[in-house]
Description:
Helices cover about 65% and strands about 0% of the residues. It has one domain. The chain is mostly helical.
Amino acid sequence: MAAHEETAGGVEPARVRQLWHLLEPLHAVLYYAPEVLEEAAALGYGTGERWASYFPIRAAPLGTVGDERVASAFYSFNPRMVAEHIGPAWRIASPEDVLAARLRGMDRAYRAIFGDRTDSPELAEAAALARRAAEAVNTAGRPLAAANAALDWPEQPHLQMWQAATILREHRGDGHLAALLVAGLDPVESLVSFAAIGAASVERFESRGWSAQEWAAARERLVARGLLHADGTATEAGHHLRRGVEEDTDRLATDPWRALAPQDIDRLTGLLGEFWVAALSSGLLPSETTLGIGKV
């Protein structure tokens, strides 16, 4: 895309993807930080494995909803797995209590990760820029983005940074699900096809709760469509389809960034660097994820 197109109100897809790469770790520490897990445990959630707290923590902005709505919004998880964790979730604690706990946990987690830089003017400036983008999201047809965007903004800049990263992340995620639907990939097929291009190992994707039989059936459907070879690797058509999904996802994630001038986006990108490094260097985030960053 030409530079004049960006200045005229468009944002290059490569820049949109770069901003996602920078913001994703700032959001994702929510699910791994011991401080957040301690807050979840204090409410009564199990923390022996991550999913008991993950589902209520991520779903809390939706309110007291059942497992069918959560499975629909989360998409790639086996609905049986969602039901296992969401079924008892709101009997343990209310969504309002979970929201308060996750914010307390992120306050502590950011202070542990960023140290004195938590209260720096640079993080406050980055938060203000990210918030402008987050407040510009169009939430139509995007349930998780809408639910997070409806929450009150915290007063402290570092927590505004986390909330903005979360809104933008869920906005992108909602758009990604739309792209998968257009590509004709059901929840398990979306994982099988992503593993087929090497986005992550099959074992990593097994964390989404699908049985070996369900995985094999999805693989057979994709082989029949010409998207996979018999050994489970992607054909040329399979790679093309997944590239299209990622391109559509980037395109659907563009709108919020039009709220910032190109120089503001450049400034935000520069400001986020040290905090991105700190989040990745914390050792909290897994070395292999199901996001497929860099695998298109």
